[in-house]
Please model this.
Amino acid sequence: MKIVHKGSEEARNELPTLLEDAQSGRATIITRRGRPVAALVPLSQYQSGTKQQSLLSHEGAARGLWGENSAGTIKKLRADWRARPDGYRPDRLFPRSASQARQIV
Model:
């Protein structure tokens, strides 16, 4: 089965035809400026796709990763980062809030 590629404008103008094609089992890739951004596929093909795995089965998998006192470990890491002579500060690379981000700039 050949998959058809359509630009976003063309797909918008031909939507009824593309829906009929999908109903007949044909898929269409929709592009924007030549790059694929979406797929219009038959519902049966969509439903048979890979489902997202639940994370509930991994609950507690990293327990103890940071030691018994994870908050204390993180505080020590931050203190070490602040003491580095090269000025490396991960907390500045990934600010916790918008106000912190404005202070960095």
